[in-house]
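SEQUENCE-TO-STRUCTURE ENTRY
===========================
What this section holds: a protein sequence and its matching fold, both as plain text.
Tokens: labelled as protein backbone structure tokens, with as many entries as the chain has residues.
Question of interest: how does this chain fold, as expressed in backbone structure tokens?
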Amino acid sequence: MSHQNRVFTLIGLLVIIITFFLLAASAMAGTGPQTLFTHNITAVGTSLAITPMEQALLDRLNAAAVSVDAAIYDFDRASIRDALIAAHNRGVVVRIVTDDEAYANNSYQPHYAALEAAGIPVINDARPSSIMHNKFFVIDGEIVWTGSTNMSNTAFSYNHENALVLTSTLVADIYTIEFEEMFVDGRFGPAKSDNVTHTLTYNGIPLEIYFSPTDGAMIEVIQAVNAATESIQFGIFFYTDDGLRDAMLAKIQSGVAISGVWDQLGAANAYSDDEALCAAGANLKIENFGGKMHNKFMIIDGSGSNPVVITGSMNWSAAGGGANDENTIIIHDATTAQAYVAAFSELYDALGPETLCQTSGGGDVLVYLPFITKPLPPTATPTPTATPTVPASTATPSPSATPSATPTSPPGPTGNIIITTIFYDGAGNQEPDEYVEIRNDDTQSVQLNGWTLRDLANHVFTFPNFVMQPGQVCRIYTNQVHPEWCGFSYGSGSAIWNNGGDCADLRNSSNVTVDNYCYP
């Protein structure tokens, strides 16, 4: 080959190489995050079979080479537990933050204890009044997994959930800052700072990231709704924020088409905003699936010129925006929007006309009675190796503020409702934190209308028309209303439960004591 031909050949190869990289860069510029959804509409109970969403997370955990930081709430999925332990055993630095109540939960504690027994540090928020509700992973300082999905059997195999996977060191750095505020600094909730970049681009896509309660996440969600011009579609578990309700009502008045799928438990809450939206003309369906409609996503102008997707761990409530540790992502991307529109349509179309909040004839509003709840799902039978044996000394004890007690729980026609704990010693102004926790240990639902709870000083709380399902747990707070915990509150404005000792007396509607609990 002549010298001239060799030069032409080299030039041709160089042109091919440059063209390849330009095309790759062009393709990358429009690449959005990976979107994942559960498809559990026909599920009749939990399952231990690995799901596609779960496998996508396991693949990344199994490939981790340097670090895994995880903020976890519910946690009883053995596959995730084992992948974290395996990563630690091959030298990956694994760190966990969680909620104190989730950490102490009977179903989740063995799994957290197994991590600790393997040498993985687990930090909880030690805040009984609010929750560390995030569900995110930061892997090797580059990959972020987030969304509504807890690391639980119910979440992966029974509920309706979504997850995002973003591969970006910039996004990972933002989530790492948030994680280390909790893990390293021990700061949760309002003790954290608004200290991260909120607006950035992800492969050319505008992206916004906000953490509750310090970053004003709910304000940003409302602003996104205010910008809607054509349509809003959403799937939600709890939605009680009146500012967001008012923004939606204004959009309905301006002609924006609003449709949503609401969880039955969330919609039945006394503070839920579904009835106000229904009355204004929103096309809502109240799910009747077996699992929870646990998503927290919204698609704004999905077919418009500037489609927006909002997702993350935050329920649209006062606690979600103003008290809990949460993360919210707002994505301006047509491809991501279309994926969420498809997921929304799958859920909405699977529900029949009987689930509509408005009838087709005349538009009469169907009023949903407050506090409709659903039973616990049938439980998957774990394999013998699902929960390894852990020495008792490795488990961190529950916060000392909540004493142990052995309550008496007489069964009978009034049901087997027991008082499980009293949290009586909150920080600072104590009455917002105080609560009494009760649980239905019966195999049948129990109507609590007219039941009472009282202390030794005869501060009396009378239950509303409320049906408590088998296994359901509720809390009766002293002052604040927490919709996630059945929405009960004395509304007293001052502390009730004495730090030096007190007794709670739970009576049925016939004024017969069903259970009592004394401390210390």
Notes: Residues 416 and 442 are 5 Å apart (CA to CA).
